[in-house]
Write a structure and sequence with these properties.
341 residues, alpha/beta, 6-stranded mixed β-sheet, 4-stranded antiparallel β-sheet, membrane
């Protein structure tokens, strides 16, 4: 659906050049919910603006369904932009128009007949659950309701792509969850490819199937969400993962564990079907090595389970090493290095 090939964007000022995007290669497949995450200044928003040539790339090509955007005439580019809906962090609703007026505005710009405008607007109001708010104005709505209007407006022209620019950043956690569920419905019921940028890893975890991590204008890691979450390679990605999955207890808890005689702590990662198997119990019983689970959880990602446990093994070193060797053949296991208490 979308292909970035060796894309760079440089902004020139009087004194210097700012490289907002550097040599990015990304492919977003049709039907993807693709997340781009990075801290402020990573280049996420600039990359999004290149999708519909709101910004022209300095080098490289952007293709939509195989068409190089740089080859389009202004007329053809306008037609293509109608196939790309956008929703924003601050909603960008017109305060002088009602909810229905905001949703119908793109259709009026496209010269759609009034009867079709009325039908489509009513249909979208039902879809986002705001039929009773049709005659209200944006100032009468909550943040979540405003974003629902923004989504309905973006869907008015039946786009192939929906771009979400920090769409949940201004919302509380409960409202964020509701909006993400709505975006998931948009993707599933209409087959729309969703490209979203965010600095919140929980958003990526909730609805995306693929993710790219950006830093200083570059894509530093990308892949399926499950793979990136369970095996983050880059330190920046690891920090994002830790922001939503605290995978180690507090320093105070660890100090108490050490005072009670704990010495060696191991992180064990279980993936997929292994989370259902009593693997840990079977192997430790086989080698007669007691163990304590100090910390851990099992989470769901993309309809698959991922278990992360911190375990303290007890017994002589020979037997413990046998357990670790046997576990390492089926799961990931590593010793956690702790500071001296």
């Amino acid at each position: 659906m979308i292909e970035f090939s060796k894309i760079s964007k440089v902004f020139k000022t009087k004194d210097r050049e700012v490289h907002a995007v550097r040599d990015v290669n990304l492919t977003i497949d049709q039907g993807d919910i693709f997340g781009i995450i990075g801290f402020s200044g990573a280049g996420k928003s600039t990359l999004l603006r290149l999708v519909n040539l709101l910004e022209a790339p300095s080098t490289g090509t952007v293709k939509i369904q195989g068409t190089d955007l740089a080859t389009l005439s202004q007329k053809d580019l306008r037609q293509l932009r109608r196939r790309i809906g956008m929703i924003f962090q601050n909603f960008n609703l017109m305060t002088s128009r009602t909810v229905a007026g905001n949703i119908s505005y793109p259709l009026k710009l496209a010269g759609t007949p009034k009867a079709e405008i009325d039908r489509r607007t009513a249909e979208l109001l039902r879809f986002v659950g705001l039929s009773e708010k049709a005659r209200d104005y944006p100032e009468q709505l909550s943040g979540g309701q405003k974003q629902r209007v923004g989504i309905a407006r973006a869907l008015a022209t039946n786009p192939d792509i929906l771009i979400c620019d920090e769409a949940t950043s201004a919302l509380d956690p409960e409202t964020t969850a509701d909006i993400l569920k709505l975006l998931k419905r948009v993707n599933e019921e209409f087959g729309i490819t969703v490209l979203l940028i965010t600095h919140e890893m929980n958003v990526i975890q909730s609805i995306c199937n693929r993710v790219a991590v950006m830093e200083q204008g570059q894509v530093i890691e990308q892949g399926d969400v499950y793979d990136v979450f369970t095996q983050p390679q880059h330190p920046t990605t690891q920090r994002f993962i830790q922001s939503v999955h605290q995978d180690i207890p507090s320093e105070q808890i660890l100090k108490e564990w050490q005072k009670s005689g704990g010495q060696h702590l191991y992180r064990v990662l279980f993936k997929g079907s292994l989370t259902h198997n009593p693997l840990l119990s079977e192997i430790t019983q086989k080698h007669q090595v007691p163990f304590n689970i100090i910390y851990g959880s099992v989470r769901e990602l993309q309809n698959k389970l991922f278990g992360n446990l911190l375990i303290s093994f007890q017994g002589n070193d020979v037997q413990v090493n046998k357990v670790i060797d046997e576990l390492s053949q089926q799961v990931e296991i590593e010793e956690v290095q702790l500071h001296e208490s």
